[in-house]
Give the backbone structure.
Amino acid sequence: MDELGDFLKTRRARLNPEQAGVRVYGERRRVPGLRREELAQLAGVSVAYYTRLEQGQSRNASDGVLDALSRALQLDGDEIVHLRELARPASGVARRRPRPERARPNHRALLHGLGDTPAVLIGRRTDVLGWTPLGHALLAGHLDYAAPDQPGTRPNMIRMVFLDAHMRGLYQDLPTKTKDAVGYLRLVAGRYPDDAQLTELIGELSVTSQEFAKLWARHLVASCKSTVRGFRHPLVGSLSLFEEPMDLVSDPGLRLVSYSAEPGSPSEEALRLLALTVLRGARARASAQRRGCR
């Protein structure tokens, strides 16, 4: 399916004539949203040209046309960026399997420097490249702490959100989390259309998760933003945490996501308790290793 055409169709379908300021005269409409000719009129382009654009037969639309379509479709900031990336695809680039992403020494030093802050380093395909001990305990304590060091089997955040029972039970508002995850993945897919591994991930999730397939068909688009996320942790109970995603400017596509609690709140106390649990576990493992060396 043509990604640009699919995106335009979904955005046209969600906008009714009244929202767009189009006059209707009581006629029965067979399709939801705006008709092609109505959108073309609002954007100031010919119906024939817009039809070619929606059918994937016209590329490299001008900035003026894209701006006009963005206004007519009432797109938000993330959607405008996505529209431009779909309308200006890299030409003549074959799908390739790039080298696995990895946490470089400076990334590991950054995670180490965060101390008891829950944080996770995520690649552009949402692979977990590294985490702090408390980040691991908060999000995926059921997995091996060293799992991100194995490129072939490392955890993948969006895969876990849809397929991992532990993580699905972790979020108090799972529907919002799944929509956020799909919206971000769609934005990344538009940015890296030649990434074969990303395409494989989307295909896998579309087959294995009906929930993902339904959300993907809606063409949700959303960048990662600061938010408050509620958790139901199996060890320390309910937490309400600030989720802060930060793009690493020197490494495009990589994000550091940190979590923090309101000072003096029950959630802050729960994080302290979780940190103590992590410390006790580390001491127990160290003691077992010492006994094994005797």
